[in-house]
């Protein structure tokens, strides 16, 4: 009999607020990326910026995915 994994929040409410703030800034045209200072237009990038800021402030956010792990898993499947 398989045990059911407890469903808990992956992200804290503080992280959600950070992402929401960044999404609003993107929609208003005020969100800029890191060093290049170009305007962010991609919602995925706005979410990534919000999660990054939440991590820096100490909010509960899972670690970002490893770059090499994605390559290895796709190579195993092929």
Describe this structure in words.
The chain is an all-alpha fold. The chain has a domain of 48 residues. It is 54% helix and 0% strand. The longest helix is centred in the N-terminal third of the chain and has 16 residues. It starts with 12 loop residues before the first helix and ends with a helix.
Describe the structure using short key phrases.
78 residues; mainly alpha; 3 helices; 54% helix; 0% strand; extended
Name the helix and strand elements from N-terminus to C-terminus, one letter apiece. Answer: HHH
Overall form: extended
Measured by DSSP, the beta-strand proportion falls in under 5%
Find the structural class using helix and strand composition: mainly alpha
Rg (C-alpha, Å): 16 Å
Query: How many strand elements?
Result: 0
Proportion of residues in helical segments = 40-55%
First-last Cα distance: 31 Å
The overall pLDDT, averaged over residues, is 85
The biggest sheet amounts to: none
Number of distinct helices: 3
Low-confidence stretches: none
A few lines on this structure:
The protein is mainly alpha-helical and 78 residues long.
